[in-house]
Amino acid sequence: LLTSAGELSGTVFEEMSRLAARTGAINLGQGFPDVDGPPEMLDAAAAALRGGGNQYSPVAGVPQLQEAVAEHQRRFYGLEPDPASGVVVTVGASEGLAASLLAFLRPGDEVVTFEPHYDLYGAVVEFAGARLVTVPLEPPRFSPDLDRLAAAFGPRTRMVILNDPHNPTGTVFDDAVLSRVVELAAEHDCVVVTDEVYEHLRYGGAHRPLAALPGAFERTLTVSSVGKTFSATGWRVGWVSGPEHLVGAVRATKAYFTHSAATPLQLGAAAALRLPDAFYEGLAEDFRQRRDVLVQGLAAAGAEPFEPQGTFFVVADVRALCERHGVGDATALAPVLAERSGVVGVPVPALASAAHRGLYTTWMRFSFGKRRDLLEQAGRRLAG
Ligand code: PMP
Ligand code: GLN
After folding, report:
1. H-run or E-run covering 287
2. What is an example of a GO molecular function annotated in this UniProt entry (predicted)?
């Protein structure tokens, strides 16, 4: 089933990072920061490594991190997951998402999500024998059509996946969208899985988790990780929080994937989550400045960027660049830009379904999770 679909030959992010390595281009494709995370986090992990913290942790994670996650959810969002039974530590948000999906999905079930979307959702839904039903966010504004959202639900809908802030578009969903998702999920008795890995990369407003809406917590699994907030995508530490009856099923499932995440890194993550508000504010301001550099660079190069309200991605209509380089679409442009301009981005059609790919043919995603000088250089290269 999977290989005949040809979808699992490798992720587009791996492919674009290989392209960047081969051509020596600036890699604005795969999203990962090019700096280390906060020293408090690194010191805590190093101390744990040297201090005997090198054996299995409990399946649900070290209690210090479970408590730090619960405390973070309370500090920023007023949510109150129980640290012991309502938080499970996972190997990145990736395992948190995979375990959440596989814990609840059965063959024939349907899962509603917006597209374009992070590629893991489609792959794991398929592992479960379930089917992803997508609602397109249409360019150039990428705002959801609530009638189309409602129409995507049916008798087989078992789950909704909401990625907010949204990769790749940088969209942040407003209260009307979040409330409609909660209503529809209640009507169809669905579990909602929210992917909030970009929760602290928000520009012009604080993040509001769907679980904080009235009536939402009891049916919602909230997933996040250290990767983006603490510039530690290689640590592979994430977590899922929510009500005990849902989180318990995720814990039981993930026990058979990896058992537990790396113990010393969990202790580092616990220290990171406890950093003062000033750290989080500084992070968002730093990324906002980098966003502006990349948005301006793309516009100066003739692309038409959509200004993101969250994440570290900008999607841009690269029609003018396609014309300049004599290619038909963003997919054909990616290797040409790498060779001729020395910049790698991800063609958005790679993150869309066959049914809706046509909406995004001239759109490309660029990451600003990089040093400012590199972002400035990328802008100049694209213009040249
Ligand atoms: N969800 C989204 C939307 C992502 O962009 C990513 C990649 N950073 C992940 C999940 C995976 O996160 P992690 O690296 O913590 O597994
Ligand atoms: N989340 C990152 C992105 O969207 C990449 C993660 C991965 O390589 N799977 O670019």
Report:
1. helix 277-300
2. pyridoxal phosphate binding
Cα gap 381→332, rounded to integer Å: 18
Assembly ipTM:
0.97
Q: Are residues 18 and 140 in the same domain?
A: no
Do 6 and 67 lie in a common domain? no
Tell whether 116 and 224 lie within a shared domain: yes
Going from the C-alpha of 365 to that of each of 5, 71, 322, the distances in angstroms are 24, 34, 14
What's the domain count of the chain?
2
pLDDT of residue 282: 96
| 52-78 mean pLDDT | 97
Q: Which of 246, 275, 304 is the last residue of a domain?
A: 275
pLDDT surpassing 80 at residue 114? yes
* CA gap 221, 193 in Å, rounded: 5
Ligand 2 atom with minimal separation from the 197 CA: 1
Compute the C-alpha angle 93/273/160, nearest 5°. 30
Provide the token pair at 120: 């893991």
Does 352 lie in the same domain as 267?
A: no
Ligand index nearest the alpha carbon of residue 226: 1
Find out whether 250 and 96 touch, Cβ atoms under 8 Å. Answer: yes
The 8-class DSSP code of residue 334 comes to: H
Domain boundary among 242, 259, 275: 275
Distance 346 CA to ligand 2 centre (A): 10
Residue in 32, 311, 366 to alter for ligand 2 test, most ligand atoms within 8 A of Cβ: 32
Q: How far is the CA of 92 from the centre of ligand 1 (A)?
A: 7
192: which residues sit within 8 A by CB, 6+ positions away? 159, 160, 161, 162, 181, 182, 185, 210, 216, 219, 220, 221
Which residue is associated with the tokens 């070290």?
62
